[in-house]
Amino acid sequence: MLSRCYSLELSPVAPFNFDATLHDPSHFPTGDLEWQPGTLWRTMLWEGRPLGLKFENQGTVARPRLALSVWSGRELSPAFLERLAREIVYRYSLDLDLADFNAKAHRDPVLGPIALKWRGMRSCNHSSLYEYLIIAILLQNATVRRSVQMMEALFERYGTRLQFDGKSLHCFWPAQKLVQVTEEELRTLKVGYRARSIKRITQAFAAGDLDEFELREQTYEEQRGALMRLYGVGPASAGYILSDVFHHLDELRHISPWEQKIYSKLFFDREPSDPVPEQELLRFFEERYSRYKMLAVHYVWADLWWKRRNERIDWLEDLIRL
DNA sequence: CATCAGGGCCCTG
DNA sequence: CAGGGCCCTGAT
Questions:
Q1: What DSSP assignment string belongs to A178-197?
Q2: SS3 category, A16
Q3: A136-145, A250-259, A273-282, A312-321: lowest mean pLDDT where?
């Protein structure tokens, strides 16, 4: 039970779309967050402190205002809260200026109307590098349901449950907590061969081989190299992390088969049984959206998933495979 | 009941 | 550089 509560206010750079930035309907649900329109509750392990956060939309796309409540079991200093606020600005790209992207997007037939509809959206990431790596490992070779099960099992065993603002949510474990755990123990949680990747990645973080904040200052190639050197991280996982965690808006050099089918339908109206070849898609996105290609594709992708909330999209359901 | 593929990656030859 | 194996689960 987190009893102390602090209030902060954040001013994202306009335009800012609160819901589309803080909630991604294509992500599998995890027990560390809960969203409803206008409000996001989530937990965050920051500087070793388990925190409960509530984000509330108190503005508009054109005049954004974001109220942040922070719950903690222990007292938090103003300096701590200042560092926390800066981290949140980074993670959610609150200071991203979308003017140039919007200007270019509006001239594009596919992206134009979507960029207008979702004006102010950033791609959604809540996680630290370590946390995202764990999630990326759980995504590999698994259906959505299985990823959810594995995440829940890990949270139950190694996470902590936080109660705040009437919510009860899991909070991520620090890498050090998992470093003693054996591969065999992890396997009892039915993560299968992923146990080795989780173990090796955890060790790398606990040993300080890898530092998220140093990596942020490095070049794209250095970041990619550091990720690819991790056991269990290949081009697909590295790609997600380079775009979502390190905010490379042009990161798109690999498209998995199910994404390929979805893009083929959205951009070329081609049936999933007859998708456009990966390399052709990549050339197309490069030519059309160049340095914003990941962000552009994210807008079109996210639009589809938001639509799915209200209407049934048969061809998509067939591809999701819960 | 058996078989297979799933939002990859590693390792081997 | 191609292809088999890996954990487990639900679909067929």
A1: HTT--HHHHHHTT-TTHHHH
A2: coil
A3: A312-321
Q: What is the mean pLDDT of residues A292-304?
A: 96
Distance in Å from B6's C1' to A137's CA comes to 14
Taking CA atoms, A96 is separated from A247, A295, A296, in Å, by: 10, 12, 15
C-alpha span between A240 and A2 (Å, rounded): 33
Q: Which of A169, A147, A174 shows the shortest CA–CA distance to A42?
A: A169
**In a 3-state reduction of DSSP, which class is residue A134?**
helix
Q: Which nucleotide is nearest to A237 (CA to C1')?
A: B8
**CA–C1' span, A188 to C5, in Å?**
20
pLDDT digits (tens, 9 = 90+) for A75-84: 999 999 999 9
> What are the backbone angles phi and psi of residue A12, rounded to the nearest 5°?
-65, 150
Decide: CB of A145 under 7 A of nucleic strand C. Answer: yes
Report chain C positions within 7 A of protein CB atoms.
6-10
Condensed to tens digits (0 to 9), the pLDDT of residues A54-108 reads 999 999 999 999 999 999 999 999 999 999 999 999 999 999 999 999 999 999 9
Nucleotide B8: closest residue by CA–C1': A140
CA–C1' A142–C11 (A): 14
Q: How far apart are CA A276 and CA A167, in angstroms?
A: 45
Q: Specify whether the CB–CB gap between A201 and A241 falls below 8 A.
A: no
Exposure of A236 by Cβ count < 10 A (0-12 exposed, 13-18 middle, 19+ buried)? Answer: middle
Going by pLDDT thresholds of 50, 70 and 90, the confidence category of residue A273 is: confident
Give the distance, in angstroms, between residue A229 CA and nucleotide B11 C1': 15
